[in-house]
Predict the structure.
Amino acid sequence: MKKLFLSAVTAFFMVSAYAQTDVNMGIIPAPVSVQKGSGSFVFDKSVVLLSNNPKNAKIAETLQSFAATKGLNLKIVKAATATQKVIELTSVGANQLPDEGYQIKITSNKIKLIGKDAGLFYALQSFMQLMPDKKHVGAISVSNVEINDYPRFSYRGLHLDVGRHFFPLSFIKKYIDVMATYKLNNFHWHLTEDQGWRIEIKKYPKLTEIGSSRNGTIIGVFPGSGGTDNEVYKGYYTQAEAKEIVAYAAARYINVIPEIELPGHGSAAIAAYPQLSSFPDRDTPIKEGAPWSGPRTGKQVQQTWGVFDDIFVPSEYTFEFLQNVLDEVIAIFPSKYIHIGGDEAPKKYWKESEFCQQLIKEKGLKDEHELQSYFIQRIEKYLNGKGRSIIGWDEILEGGLAPNATVMSWRGEKGGIEAAKQSHDVLMTPSTNGLYFDHKQSLAEDEPLTIGRNGKGVSNFAKVYNYNPVPDVLNEEQKKYIKGVQANLWTEYIETPSKVEYMIFPRVFALSEIAWTPLAKKDLKNFSEERLSLHLARLDKTGTNFWVPMPIGQPEGEVKGEDHVITLQTPITGAKIFYTLDGFRPSENAAEYTAPLKINVPQGKKKVLKTIVITPSGKRSVVAETVLNNGAAEVKVK
Ligand code: ACM
């Protein structure tokens, strides 16, 4: 009993001191430099918050509210006495720091957060992360340390597709909060799609009256054969709501980049204004119950996923329409960048259209790819004239890049490499390197429906972490065009905020680190074994969903041999591991892992170790399997 009590006490202190013992003080993304001193700053009731620059008042208030959640009542003061223990927020000296950079200096009498604007905001984020989790005035202390930090990339992005599924404003704010905590600074809001136009445009009310509503949603996988659910699915953001998001993001040093897709993925707009199509009158209805492999060109807000042939025609009507739309968009979004899509625009309709063929001749263009380039360049010129710049998916390279375009490389890194060689700015978001967060996180059968079947495109946090956005094939000059990295969340199979959370966590932590932390500090072991567990444990307490990692130390696949010792570690502070060796699925009723497993496998036999991780709030990992094989026939393992 006594022993049990003692180990419980030890565990309590280990958990609370966890962040402090880590070389990175538990911070994600890992800072550039963390130098620990001896001693610590002990919080007592006398500690005050010193902040005398009105520009920093909001950050002071946020810190005050945060401290209150720890039971600390911090008074904000403009001056402190020499003997008073203080947390000081200051911008003095911040001009010497790199862009968005900050310092945290903790000594026994003083905590100093130094930075200006985003820099001070990021100092606050790091400071909140290094504070112990427990609430215990008089018992909270932080190790003395000096942290110097600044980002590797100026662009650190996260995307959300609200076309396939619509998410409420409250959730968009939560998404932005996550970005802010992890120092991501560009929210790419994918607002228009074949399956829904989601932003109010006052000059074209049918875009939302018609374009924001579809009559059903495909059931199960695409192409599939389950038909649609025949239920109306709709939603859009008013301009006032979009402005609210822009302001909410700006207060957290996040820029919102709207995406208005052209010339493809425009079915919803075409359904509202058929003049935008090469064939306003052509309508090939989609057959009820069809497997969706035939023509899918119905002029409707689409009910299935994939790519549709009916794209915007490059007519004067279309250009005027798009310019009017963009006028309203730029009035809402102050972002320097406007994303104009450009991906997945089939050329079938343009090939069949007399108008398009005539235009190709008139403009002296070679083919439909050059016609797309002509389309994009006209839009770019218009937006450049308004002081804005375009970002396009890497298809905008085909037929010639628009002169000032930034390329978002998604079909691998090839487009990004080519664009950098052509001296264009590049944002890396390759689906092949783990940055498509709509891909599944493991091959286990427990995973929910996601895009990419038959094992294609599995991406776990380690794959994301291992990605370096700057390709080795570029020379030093070309490498400078890689401005940053982003992960994308397409939502064909993501219907709810909870599933969004499941898909982004913990991968978004890895994204944050590859976007911020210098390459030389990359350390998957420290990330996954010291810090991930702490951050996931925090999410577990706040009712946020996430993908629960498998036990640390469990070998993947098959391990050969007779005698095995398997040492596991929980991937989440406070979570438990349960296991079986009898072929049954583990649950909380299986054996709990408490000490290294010593497993003997007789000659010619195999045993399967199956584990599950269950968090304090009851979240469960997928079942992870390791086959221990001592001369039995080869087995295929997940
Ligand atoms: C894309 O994933 N179609 C950019």
Observations:
- The pocket of acetamide is lined by residues 343-344, 393, 410 (CB under 6 Å).
- Residues 368-385 form the longest helix (18 residues).
- The first strand starts at residue 33 and ends at 42.
